[in-house]
Amino acid sequence: MMRPGFADPVQDAQSCFRAVLEALSRPGRVQTLASGLTPPAPLHPATAAVLLTLADAETPLHHDAGAEADAWLRFHCGCPMTAAGSAAFVLAVTPPPALATLQAGTDEEPERGATLVIQVEALEAGSGWRLRGPGIEAEHRLAVRGLPDGFLADRAARRGLFPRGVDVILCAGDRIAALPRTTLIEEG
Amino acid sequence: MSEDLQARKRWMGVLAKASADAIRACLHTVPPLPPHTRLRGPETGLVMLRGRAGGDGAAFNLSEMTVTRCAVTLEGGDTVGHAYVAGRDRSQAELAAVLDAALQDAAQRPALLAAVIEPLAAAQAEARATESRKAAATRVQFFTMANMR
């Protein structure tokens, strides 16, 4: 059965956009989204809200969330579905694809790099990884449960590509945190 | 196009052209419609109309048109009803979407077709015929030399 999207598309998408902006400008700080969404499984409310806010007819999407989520995303976002290598947004509810397989943009147009939305089990600020970089005064700490082991190494190996790269938004339940391509991560 | 699609196209067209009051007047005779959930809208936006000179020339943008659309799903069913109607009448779009969802259910279809769609279609045909008669009465025939030979 098809489920509804945002109750008030304009206001809800704006407040969600604000939260995503806040998450990206303060990497590792956890933002809470009160979206009121009841998306189809396996999507969490935060994951669904981020995609409803960011994806539209001009942003090809790739996801691994199954048929029901596919129909829901097509109806509410109206976004074309494509392969991971040509997608502007990539949603991973299972272990994410290797970063090298995603669009990284070009040196002239680094904004064309993909945004990877990963649905994880839990996000907690204050312990775990040590994050440094733009948007962080000294260091932010973020604990993430549900990411594959090789993720940090994969991300670190691609630092040399800067300004090209992939930005990551982590979603769990109704919480999000972001890891822009500029953020340095050390395992705590 | 399959028969089902043809029939759905017809009732969606009739509902899009009927005012909310006209639809509500017809609904008094049928049992109340099941409760519904709004999936999208009703929301008003613009649609670009395209035209072709003489019907087969190059396509051009004729103008933009105000359209209200709505998508609903009925309680206990998984059919989605859609409506796109001209203008800004949100209640017309919502009613039309609910009726589209109910009409897709084969059990309710005959009663709804007879009570709602047929009377509306008849009224629309009648209004159109009246308009055509009025226009025909003021028609002027022009003759040219070539025709008079």
Can you offer a commentary on this structure?
The complex is a heterodimer of chains A (188) and B (149). Chain A is of the alpha/beta class and 188 residues long. Chain A contains four helices and nine strands, in the order αβαβαββββαβββ. Chain A has a single domain (9-186), classed as Rossmann fold. Chain A is 24% helix and 24% strand. In chain A, a hairpin with a 2-residue loop joins strand 7 and strand 8 (175-179). In chain A, helix 1 crosses helix 2. Chain B has 149 residues and is α+β, with helices and mostly antiparallel strands. In chain B, helix 1 packs across helix 4 and helix 2 (20-27) packs across helix 3 (90-103). The radius of gyration of chain B is 20 Å and the shape is globular.
In terms of structural class, how would the helical and strand content of chain B be classed?
Answer: alpha+beta
Multimer state: heterodimer
Main sheet specs of chain A = 6 strands, mixed
What is the count of helical runs of chain A? 4
Order of helices and strands of chain A: HEHEHEEEEHEEE
Runs of chain A in which pLDDT lies below 50 for 5 or more consecutive residues are none
**Terminal Cα separation of chain A, in Å?**
44 Å
- Percentage of residues in helical conformation of chain A: 10-25%
How much β-strand is present in the residues of chain A? Answer: 15-25%
Order of helices and strands of chain B: HHEEEHHH
**Number of spatially distinct domains of chain B:** 1
General shape of chain A? globular
Task: Provide mean pLDDT of chain A, rounded.
Answer: 93
